[in-house]
Each structure stands twice: as C-alpha cells, then as structure tokens.
Automatic annotation (TrEMBL):
Signal peptide per UniProt: none
SUPFAM superfamilies: vWA-like
Name of the protein: VWA domain containing CoxE-like protein
Organism: Actinoplanes derwentensis
Database matches in InterPro entries: LolB (IPR050458), Uncharacterised_CoxE (IPR008912), vWFA_dom_sf (IPR036465)
Length: 436
C-alpha cells in the first residue's frame, strides 16, 4: 500500500469512528491532523462543530474544491495520489457534518447550520442546494430520502413552539418539507407570535416551491393541436414549405414560375371549452410532501386560461378546498394532517364535479392504503370507464418513491393507468398535455 493510500485510509477510518462514536480516537485524530497539515489544509476541516460555511469564509479558495467534489465528473486522475488524499479530507468534512447529528435537543441555529452543510453536500454531488431534499425535485431518491429523514429528525428534536415564539430564533429557520410538516401538524396549538411566524415560514416555502413549479409548467410541452378544427386561413398560419411542396407539379420551366393552385395552412386551434381538473389529495401524514407539491401545482394550473380546477382533501372525511385553490397557503392552513384513510368519502364529493368526462382529468394523490379497498377500486374504475383521464399519483417529490399499496398498484397497471411516482415533472407534462 502506497503512502497516499495509507493516508486516505486513516482519514476514512477516522470518519467512520466519529460517525458511530462521537468520542475521539486519539491515534486517528492525531494522524488525521498531521495529514491535513501536510496537505496545507485548515485544521477546521476535522472539527464537526465548525460549519462548511465558516471554513469557506475563512479559506475562500476551498469553495471551488467543494463544488462538484463527489459528482461523477469531479473525479481526479488515477495518478494524482496527493489530490485523492486532499479530496478524502474534504469529503470527510462534508459527510461528518451532515450525517453525524448527535442526540438531544436541537436549536434553531443548529438546524440552520445543518441545512447549510447539507446544501454544501448537495453542491458537492453536483446538485443545487435543497435539490436532493425535495425542494426542486431532484434525481437521487434514495439519498434524498436519507437527507430528508435526517432533517425531519432534527426538526422533531427542536422545541419548535419556543423557537416560533421568539422572533429572532424564528427568523433563523430555513423552510423545508420536514419543518412545514411539523408546522402543519402543530398549527392548531399555536397562537400569537408563534402562529404568525409559522404562517410566515409556510408562506415562504410555498412561494419557493411555486417558483420552481411555474418554471416546470412553462417548460413542459404545450398540449396537442385539435385536428378536428379547420385551420384559420390567415397569413401568419400559412405553411409555406408545405404549400411549395404540394404545388411543385405546377412548376413551369418555360416561365420559371411556380403556379400555386392551393394554399396550405397550419392547424393551431386548441381546446375551446374549459378543461376541468379535479385534484383529490390524501391528507394523511404519510402523504405530506405530495400534498404540498400538488396543492401548489393545482393553484398554478388554476391560474391558466380555460382550466377549471377543483381541489378535494380527505382522510376519513372529505373537504372541498376549491374556494381556496388559487392560494395554496390557505389550502395548507385548512388541511388537517393525520387520521385514517377512506377514499369513498372523497369519491362521493368528487364524482358530482365530473360533468363532461371527456373534458375532465382526475388526479388522485394517495398511498392507497384504504380502509374500503374494493369500494374505492370500484369507484376508480367507474371514473376511468366514463372517459375521464384518471391519473393515480403515489409520490411527486425527490424524497423517495412512496410506499403504494401493491393491491392497488397492480390493478391500476392492469387498467392502463399506472401509478405515477417520482419526479414531479412527469405529472406536470401529463397535465399540461391534456389541459392546455
């Protein structure tokens, strides 16, 4: 084993030791300190109490090294032994700060520092900060789920009500899906300053996610042309290439002219009647991330012309949230997380909203662990057979694929309406192609 390989091994053994036991191992600590010093790196890299932000502020030249550090295109040449040791030191810093979170109560400052360090970790993976944890629907579900789980644990260990009651501490909180879930669960127990700060955090998160989703809606395909409507015969719709091609037999070599006996126009007509989008959301605790994303998405589509959006939330009771569909912040404040799951009550509320099946789409967001399985399935089948475009959704976030009831998953697949899960762009494209 070469000297460089030995040094790398010391750094990684020290990392593993600290991840599983916060107590320092004297030999590994002293060996790692010597290696870091020999590389010209700051000793703060070995101190888990020092944030990556602080390290970069003190040593700005390291920022570029952290960016893309663990991305596939960030690998060093095999013969760069010292570079690999240096890389091991930087990777160890990120992994230790993000994955060694200790036990006991967590302060607002500690949560904010972890979120910042997690952002650096995501940058090292070649992603945007917040991407793996779900804010912009990233591409690494397993890792994203782990990070979201750690963040959720930290939020759960906070004395959240005390933090929210202190304006200074509340301002230090960075909105995240885990934090929003806790706020939604606890909102009925908050009042005064704490409630105002909770609402401000929810509003910030909604606005941030909405900005991302609006971009995805704008980038998605714009729907299909209605071929049943004849093209409008105006100049801007003239299909010049097709007109020339179709009239080529009329070319006169003697006159050197193309005689056109028919003009061809592009078909541009789209939907005339407003399409109806009915979003049904399971508001049980296991579906929080999908509920937040799809509630915001429904509000965005509600702002488009010729789209009539209705929103229903349910657990063992169903609630028509359509009056607030344009404001996802108000929708979230009206939801009540937890409880059982009985989709039949939502079916009773949603079915009367289907007045023109061929011009309607139902998006049903749930893990489908239903109390009355057969009754729900019969209702879903009836909606699908009526001509409605039925889209069952299990998960639309980067936090991992939701655990969907396999009984329903197989039946949806057999019906030709497989459960959509994973990247929210899939749902955006499905909806925009149908609605616009």
């Amino acid at each position: 084993m070469s000297a460089a390989e030995t040094r790398r091994q010391v750094l990684y053994w020290r990392l593993l030791a600290r991840l599983f036991d916060p107590e320092e191992q004297a030999t590994l600590e002293s060996g790692s300190m010597a290696i870091v010093g020999d590389l010209g790196l700051p000793a703060a890299l070995l101190d888990p109490s020092v944030s990556v932000d602080t390290v970069v502020q003190r040593f700005p030249q390291l920022e570029a090294e952290f960016d893309g550090l663990m991305a596939e295109d960030g690998r060093l040449p095999e013969d760069d032994r010292d570079g690999e040791v240096r890389r091991a030191a930087l990777v160890s810093k990120l992994l230790l700060n993000v994955f060694a979170t200790g036990t006991g109560n967590v302060t607002a400052e500690q949560l904010q520092r972890w979120q910042s360090d997690a952002g650096w970790f995501e940058r090292a993976m070649g992603c945007e900060p917040g991407e793996l944890r779900g804010r912009s629907a990233g591409n690494t579900p397993g890792l994203g789920q782990t990070l979201a789980g750690i963040e959720g644990d930290l939020v759960g260990r906070m004395r959240l009500r005390e933090v929210l009651a202190d304006n200074r501490l509340a301002k230090q909180l960075t909105p995240s899906m885990s934090l929003i879930e806790q706020l939604l669960r606890d909102k009925d127990n908050l009042d005064g300053v704490a409630l105002a700060n909770a609402k401000a955090l929810i509003r910030r998160f909604v606005d941030e996610v909405a900005e991302v989703l609006r971009t995805q809606v704008a980038q998605a395909s714009a729907g299909t042309i209605d071929r049943s409507v004849p093209p409008k015969r105006i100049f801007r719709n003239l299909d010049l290439d097709r007109t020339i091609w179709k009239n080529l037999p009329n070319w006169s070599p003697e006159d050197e002219k193309l005689y056109v006996d028919r003009l061809y126009y592009r078909q541009t007509a789209k939907r005339i009647e407003p399409a109806r989008l009915i979003v049904v959301v399971d508001q049980s605790g296991s579906m929080v991330d999908a509920m937040v994303n799809c509630t915001i998405l429904a509000s965005i589509f509600a702002g488009l012309p010729k789209v009539d959006v209705h929103l229903v939330a349910y657990d063992t009771r169903a609630l028509d949230l359509t009056p607030w569909v344009h404001d996802p912040f108000e929708v979230l404040l009206h939801t009540q997380l937890g409880g059982g799951t009985d989709g039949t009550v939502a079916l009773d509320l949603a079915r009367p909203k289907i007045t023109d099946p061929r011009n309607s789409v139902v998006v049903w967001i749930s893990d489908f662990y239903e109390w009355q399985e057969q009754a729900c399935w019969d209702g879903f089948q009836a909606i699908h057979r009526s001509g409605v475009k039925f889209i069952p959704v299990g998960s639309v976030s980067s936090g991992g694929h939701q655990s969907v009831n396999p009984w329903f998953r197989q039946r949806f697949k057999d019906q030709g309406t497989p459960v959509l899960s994973g990247h929210i762009k899939k749902l955006v494209t499905e909806l925009k192609n149908f609605l616009v």
